[in-house]
# Entry
Amino acid sequence: MTDQTEAPVVDEAYRRLPTEGPIAPDLGAALLTWVEPTEEHVVAYNRWYEDDHFITGAMSMPWMFSGRRFVAPTWLQPLRGPADQTVADPIEAGKYIAVYWVNGGRLADHEQWSLGTNYRLHAEGRGSCRGPGNDPLEERRHVFTAFADHLGSSYRDDAVPRDVHTLLQPYRGMVIEMIEAPDGDRAALDRWLADEHLPGVLGGPVAVTVRFAPRPLPKDRLAHVKEVDGVERMVVLLHFLEDDPRGCWDERFAPTAERLDAGGVGRLAIQAAFVPTIHGTDTYTDELF
# Structure
């Protein structure tokens, strides 16, 4: 018997849109999403994020080509600073951070797809994890979430894999530092960081630092996503480490605020250390609070 099954109708835009615009294999932007889970729902949140949202709310989307998730157990949280930081409330908030790479020249395209997808997922009841009776749970709040333009990358040496590969490498730690240019001159701050500051940070287990300029969130963002004041004045540094951040913290990261004060070009808004999650498992969920 001949199979009479008809091929599904596919929107022609799937064929047309990839032929338009840039398609370079480079790092153009990132999505950074730093989240505090609710303690009583942390396991459910972890499973929802990795089993559903990491895929359908991020990696399935056009022009997002790499992603990784990191976690801050209690034994890393004491490293956070400075005491007068302005991002996390309290300073221990933000146990998970997810980082995603977006192709150069494609952030606007990706952002529109992301907004459409996430509005759909919320409408379908998949914008959060579910409790008994399939009721949505208030299982997280956003500490910092932003799309961010890539400013540049600095490497310990020529053997370190380039930035497009960073989230695929088995790095054992990541440190985020958010630095504000008080006068709003983010370009001058970035030059100082690249030329004066990072040569003293890179080395030992610190293999690569990737620099970003976060953008204000779109006006039609989902209501639960928090906007951090002053992002347009900030440079975000993501440092990737080949070892536990505790082993080099005092040498590589503890001096950051003092160096910034001495340089006179920026103020440390926050710094925090993470290790990668073991994707698909609930490792570390009992070590967060």
In short: The chain has one domain: 22-276.
